[in-house]
Please model this.
Amino acid sequence: MQESTIAAIRFGLGLGPGQQPETAAEILASLQTEDRVAQAYPTITYERAEELSRLHKETLDALKKREPGADDAHGKIKREINLLKPETLRAVFARAMDTEAPLRERLMYFWLDHFTASTQKQPTAPFGPAYMDGAIRANITGTFADMLKAVVVHPQMLYFLDQPSSIGPGSKIGKRQGRGLNENLAREVLELHTLGVGGAYTQTDVREFAKLLTGLFVRASDGFSYRHDFAEPGAETILGETYGGAKKASLEEIFEFLDDLAIHPDTARHVAGKLVVHFVSDLPDPDLVSHVAEAWMDSGGDLMTVYAALLNHPGAWVATGLKARQPLDFLISGLRALGLSGEQVMTMDKKLWAPLIVSQLDVMGQPFMRAKGPDGWDEAAEAWINPLGLATRIRWSMTMPQKISKTLGIPLADPRSFVLTALGDAASPGLIWAVGASETESQAMGLVFASPEFNRR
Amino acid sequence: MANGMLSRRGLLTRGAALIGCSAAAHPLMSTVTFASAPWEERLVVLILRGGMDGLDVVRPVGDPAYGELRRTMLDSKKAEAGLPLDGYFEMHPDLAPLAPLWQAGQLGFAHAVSTPYRNKRSHFDGQDILEAGTGLDVPDETRRDGWLNRMLQTVGGMESETAFAIGRDELKVLQGKAPVFNWSPDAALTVTPQSRLLLEKIYHEDALFRDAALEAIDLAEMARPAGTDGAMTEAPKGNANSVTNLAAFAAERLTQETRIAAFSLNGWDTHRKQENAIRGALGDLSETILTLKKGLGPVWAKTTILAMTEFGRTVRENGSGGTDHGTGGAMLMAGGAIRGGRVFGKWPGLDDASLYEGRDLMPTADVRSYAAWAMRGMFGIDRTLLERDVFPGLDMGSDPGLLL
Model:
């Protein structure tokens, strides 16, 4: 298999009519270019998210007091919040259509899943897009420590893992109200985000870390704050090291621990393993994982160094097909192969966009940023290629390309050349034969999208 | 492409025969035979998601405190009178289509029931516990499978078709080691013979895709209404995933080899303007039961439907004409196999001192005990298995006499 095919399918968003990086060096260089697609298709800022959340609360309070005009004001905010989800998804697709650095998009999906934080409730929903771009995307080429810190103090994560209700039992409020710790965030950071479930930590470490995290607080009326009156006084000993305790508890102590946690060998091993599993194989090559983990340790968790270690290892360039494309990846690669532009995605009529993408993600089992648990989406091919999942993909494949072409007025390519545009030398002779043997153009296009080659990566 | 590392799902025995499919002319078109199920009785479990307000659906009008607690809702101009049940309880007027079933003894309720879930009142956790069928003392990781699946495991030797999880919603109640089918009638995968042939060709070398497609096409065949041969890949018209379609599909399967079906009915979280908000949910519930009855024909006589929710709602209405998350609630049972026309359970009363935490209906029975007695009666499963394996830690208590 050609290097450029592997580059596009394993480290990109599939092949298509557009230009894209074809070698490890080109891929790494593309990550260093300006993030033009995010500028072209922005989401909301953190400040606006805070404001929307606050306005939701204020207008709801007014409504409860039956103030005149409150119904309209609250309705307006609710509508704006409800629009954020589909608009964010449009931006995600538009960026993917136009990007010349497809690995940046893939890495955003990866890290968004690694740090899964789903909140669907209206007052907290505005933080989703701000989290995606502010905490995750902004730190993709920085250090893991920076991303970890941005994530752990972000309202999206704080709400998702119940941190606002965790109060130091020895703190001012804890003593006065008899309240205590919620270990949820502390446990998931250690178990999922850093050391991994097999990592060197104990229940005592979870408890101590939960005490250290007290003080992180968010509420709709005034956004994020560090609450000294929630923070457990005294020092905490986690993984054998002592944090804080000298004077007043502070956010700095939390960051100090997260900095250490980011370069712990178990973190390097765990997250390197996840990267290899996500990009290369459900059964990762141990040499490749060690190589990436060593680069992590040597560079202090510098993510560009980590990506370079992955991309420059021969284990990352075995033939593709060891994994299944998840639904988001499947749909994005589909539209890219058809040659859609970001502009076409942004201006597509809702009557096409909803059945084409939004409801497909739901029925394929991957509603955007709404994974059920904090452990995110399943990596195993078997989790996605099951009867219901595959049936849905076959149906999309057999009907949607035709529908896109008709609605947008773009002619479909000849399927016999399209199979090569979309898959290059990953297309098997059997698939090329079947495309040629089809009765109709839409059937032929459908076979390309429904094929194992297109659904694997 | 290389994918020899991936193993097939191993769900179906029939797939195994096709691993070396080179000689089979039309593996995707192969007909499937199933072992016959061990019983004739049919069980349908409906998960009512969102927390059904048992106090509105089965109204305790005989309780002197009730009228005051629900004054705004009951006095509203639009409010219709409830339908008298047994003199003490009335049924919500939106369940009027089910009134003939009550008369015929084919509709019943159990009141003041709950799962063991207490105090946090989260939909997510509440539904997890309802579907897992465990108590709160069970560690999270053992709550991965559902009680219906564990029931199948205790019997053993099941074929996938014995149990169907229907619709797109995840149904934890049926998840677990015992094989079950999961299908949604809206998947509607019907392809032309030529497409089948070509799909067979392109999936031939990839066991994961081949087996999944094979099962999908078989399931789609089953799901297709009789008399259509479907040369289209389009979804059925209208809302293909409507409760009518789900119920019709369930009935169709249950008249054949399937013995157990489960699906979700959503929309019970009525925090605001409850009299409007609950109408759709009650309409769906009525429609589901009547569609099942119609589709099941003579099999209705052997059928038990259990409709359960994660928790009840507050006894007092809130400031926005709705109710908030509570504890004790009601369950509904229907079918030709039940001894209906009755409201089961011990009524705790609605005076302040009788409430749970001063705000919720006090549960007087575990909702699992009704499901356990139903399965005891229908499938003859030992009480010890039910109390130990299916619903760990449950005390079933005495037989409420649910079934005929």
Observations:
- DSSP finds 25 helices and four strands in chain A.
